[in-house]
Each structure stands twice: as C-alpha cells, then as structure tokens.
C-alpha cells in the first residue's frame, strides 16, 4: 500500500523525518524516499527497499539533508518524492493510494500536449499525474480540490512547498492521515504509531477530503472534511501496526475483539489457540481468552529478512517467502489439536504451506479461523490485493470451480448465511487440507471495529462501493 510522513519544525527536521518515515516501513517493500526544503532549495533522495531496509539505505545520506520542513514516503508503486517547478512555485509531493482512472487522465493530458518525465514500470508515474492536476489550477487549494474531483480510486498526499506543507486525505477517507504535534513541531503521518517514540501527540485524524496546512508556527484547516467516509476496513484487520489508531480505534484492541467474537461462537475441541505472526496474534489472543483455552506459539516468525508473502508479484517468490519466514516448533505441535488464527486468506499461498508443515510436524488437527470474510472482489480503491487477475483470489478460484465461471452467483457466495458460502468454505477447507475452516462474519467484523458500516469500505468481501 504505502505510507507518507511530513514534518515542519522550528529547528532541523531531518531526524524526525528519517525516523518517522522508517516507522511506516511495514506499509511497503519497494521504494522509499525523502525530500527536505532547506537553504539551498529542495534536497531529494529515493532508494529501492527490495534488498534492504529504509533505515539502512538512508542513514548514509542524512548528512546531505538540511532544513526544517520535509516529507517522506514508503511506496509499493512509483518512485517518490517528486519535485516540481510550476507557476505556484517549487513543490515536492508524496502520494499513497490508487488512481483507478490513470489511463484516462494520461490520455487527457496527452491531448493537451502535456509531457511526462518519469514512469513507473513503463507507465506514467501516478505522483506526476497528481502534480499535473495541482499545477493546472490557480492555487494549491484549488489544485487539491481538482485532484479530489478527477481521481477515481483514492489518493492521500502531502505537498511540501517553500512556505509549509499541505496534508490532504483522499475524498472518501479510504486511507488515513493523522496530524500530530510537539513543542515547535507539527507532523502528518499515515500511522499514529510513528508519533510515539518521537514525542508527538496526535491532534486529529483528517476527515475525508480534508486538507490541513502546517508550518513551523502552527496549523490551520484549508479545505473542510466531507460527510461521507469509506475508510478501508483492512487497515484494522491486517495492514495497521498494532499500536496505531484510526478514527480513534486501536488496531490491536480491534483484533482482540474480532478474535473474541469468533471464539464466543466456536466450540471445536482444541488444546490451544495460536496466531500466524504477526497480525494473526491479536486475533488469536482474543479468541483464546473468549474460549478459555491456552494461547501458545507453535509457529514463530523470523523477522529480519522476509517480507509479507502476498506482496511479491511472482508466485514462486510468494511461495518461498511464505515457507521461509515462519519457523515451526515441533515441541508444541506434535500430537496436538490447535485452532490457528490468521488475519485473512488472499491467495492461499501461506495457509497451504503452514497446514502442510503443521501436519508434517505431527499435528493431530488444524482448525483454521480467519479474522475476516473470504476475499472475493479485488480491491479497486487502494493498492491492497493488487492481483493481476481476480482468479488469484482463493474465493474466486472456488467460485469458478463450483459454478463453472468466476462470477456465477457471486453475491450469494459473499453472504455468510447462504448455502453457497458454505460450499465455498468447504472447497477451500478441502484444498488446504484443514480439519475445519471458518471465516469471520462481516457483521461481527464491523461490530469489532465499532464504526457504522456505511463509513467502512468492505468491497473486497461483499462487492459494495460508494462514490469514486
């Protein structure tokens, strides 16, 4: 997906910018970048993160940066930040989201004889598209409104100007942006967890479509928030760091409630509950406590070098990552029946390998419990589950096999109370060779978050959508 960070300080900002951006590293694995506005203008650096980590890549560069305002980004898409010269003045830009209509916007720009200078995997860089829309207007505020009007999908972004920073949340608030403060400093961040060790206190979550301007002297709202919100539910289920809050709702507390809701409805015999590290752990603790059974760790994660298994685009690489990053403990597995909690099943790569390993190590029974409903619809609004084909999703594979086409009765399969849904779950259970398999209901997931359903995007589970 990606994350953005921005800081305005009365003193040098480079340390806060460096560490704040690094705290967003769990949101992406491909590229990182920083840009600082200093006495000599804008200084920018971009590095690949595919072979090493943000902190390792950027630490040798810190002496090159000097200034009291800057932006940083962790990106799974294009190279960022980008620096532009326009009639509005020089500015730098970082973005996160997904421009679903990027081809149409590019075609329109070409018709107006606009030339693009950078590309992302052979396509126009999405960040440059956003800069084009901003620069075509008479002010930054008008440019921000133009982005919100014309971009389909989502785009949350931070603009670094010579006078300050604009933090801009996407029109429907699908991705978060949080304003923080400490004495003499103001920051924007995709995650509140980036504030804690840097001494910042969260001031507010920007609302859908809201824009706030910060400089070393203070902050002010420039564009008011809209009424409609569709924040991505998967932020709590999987993406979010456990200590982060979105809309005032803590990620780990949600996972505990989500697992507890499953545990309250389950009675399968098991020696203990366990979670697939890392995001499955909170769900499993909630489940175990609700059931009154022990929580144990039969699988531990080797954290230093392995990325998330759904991110690499090559299936062979995904399978390798899924196998190598988790280490089983035979002493806790052999002869045991367990309930294994995971946040989701996207393609089934990791789950299939985990089940095989557990049985090979002597597990008697593996009862799988998944903290969200079956993923059936590819994400259209942010860069989550960016499958090249909907048939990469395990739910779609099941529907294709059961129906003869991948969309047959699709909304029945999304309904947990429909017999078609039970058929799909049974198909996945058999394919994964599990003793039993249950998915969280959408109703209980929404209840565990605690926001009204109309404020949440649940498209990947039920196909619902609103607005852009």
TrEMBL record:
Domain Glutamine amidotransferase type-2: 1-217
Pathway noted in the entry: Purine metabolism; IMP biosynthesis via de novo pathway; N(1)-(5-phospho-D-ribosyl)glycinamide from 5-phospho-alpha-D-ribose 1-diphosphate: step 1/2
Domain of life: Bacteria
Cofactor note: Binds 1 Mg(2+) ion per subunit. Binds 1 [4Fe-4S] cluster per subunit.
Cofactors, names only: Mg(2+); [4Fe-4S] cluster
Enzyme class: transferase
Keyword Glycoprotein: no
Pfam families in UniProt: GATase_7
GO biological process: 'de novo' IMP biosynthetic process; purine nucleobase biosynthetic process
Keywords for this protein: Glutamine amidotransferase, Glycosyltransferase, Iron, Iron-sulfur, Magnesium, Metal-binding, Purine biosynthesis, Transferase
Residues binding Mg(2+), per UniProt: 279, 342-343
Stretches assigned to coiled coil: none
Binding-site residues, [4Fe-4S] cluster: 232, 379, 457, 460
Reactions listed under catalytic activity: 5-phospho-beta-D-ribosylamine + L-glutamate + diphosphate = 5-phospho-alpha-D-ribose 1-diphosphate + L-glutamine + H2O
CDD domains tied to this protein: PRTases_typeI (cd06223)
Family the UniProt entry places it in: In the C-terminal section; belongs to the purine/pyrimidine phosphoribosyltransferase family.
Name of the protein this chain belongs to: Amidophosphoribosyltransferase
């Amino acid at each position: 997906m990606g994350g953005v960070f921005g800081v305005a300080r009365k003193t040098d900002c480079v340390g806060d910018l460096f560490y704040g951006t690094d705290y967003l590293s769990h949101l992406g694995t491909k590229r990182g970048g920083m840009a600082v506005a200093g006495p000599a203008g804008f200084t920018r650096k971009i590095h690949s993160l595919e072979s090493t980590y943000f902190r390792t890549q950027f630490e040798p560069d810190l002496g090159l940066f000097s200034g009291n305002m800057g932006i940083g980004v962790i990106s799974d898409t294009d190279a960022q930040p980008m620096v532009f010269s326009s009639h509005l003045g020089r500015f730098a830009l970082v973005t996160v989201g997904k421009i679903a209509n990027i081809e149409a916007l590019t075609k329109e720009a070409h018709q107006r004889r606009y030339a693009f200078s950078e590309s992302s995997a052979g396509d126009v860089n999405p960040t440059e598209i956003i800069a084009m829309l901003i620069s075509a207007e008479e002010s930054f505020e008008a440019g921000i409104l133009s982005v919100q009007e014309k971009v389909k999908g989502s785009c949350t972004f931070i603009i670094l100007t010579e006078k300050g920073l604009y933090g801009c949340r996407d029109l429907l608030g699908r991705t978060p942006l949080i304003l923080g403060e400490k004495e003499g400093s103001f920051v924007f961040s995709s995650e509140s967890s980036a504030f804690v060790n840097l001494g910042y206190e969260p001031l507010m979550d920007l609302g859908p479509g809201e824009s706030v301007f910060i400089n070393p002297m203070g902050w002010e709202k420039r564009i008011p928030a809209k009424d409609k919100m569709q924040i991505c539910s998967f932020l709590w289920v999987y993406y979010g760091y456990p200590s982060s809050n979105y809309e005032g709702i803590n990620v780990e507390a949600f996972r505990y409630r989500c697992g507890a809701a499953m545990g309250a409805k389950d009675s399968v015999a098991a020696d203990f509950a366990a979670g697939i590290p890392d995001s499955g752990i909170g769900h499993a603790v909630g489940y175990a406590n609700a059931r009154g059974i022990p929580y144990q760790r039969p699988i531990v994660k080797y954290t230093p070098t392995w990325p998330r298994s759904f991110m690499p685009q090559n299936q062979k690489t995904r399978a390798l990552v899924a196998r190598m990053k988790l280490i089983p403990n035979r002493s806790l597995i052999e002869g045991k029946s367990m309930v294994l909690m995971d946040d989701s099943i996207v393609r089934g790569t990791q789950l299939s390998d985990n089940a095989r390993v557990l049985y090979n190590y002597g597990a008697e029974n593996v009862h799988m419990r998944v903290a969200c409903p079956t993923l059936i619809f590819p994400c259209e609004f942010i860069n989550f589950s960016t499958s090249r084909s909907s048939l990469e999703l395990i739910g779609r594979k099941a529907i294709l096999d059961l129906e003869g086409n991948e969309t047959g009765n699709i909304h029945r399969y999304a309904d947990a109370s429909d017999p078609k849904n039970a058929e799909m779950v049974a198909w996945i259970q058999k394919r994964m060779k599990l003793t039993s398999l249950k998915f969280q209901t959408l109703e209980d997931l929404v209840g565990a978050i605690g926001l009204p359903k109309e404020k949440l995007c649940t498209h990947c589970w039920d196909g619902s959508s609103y607005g852009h």
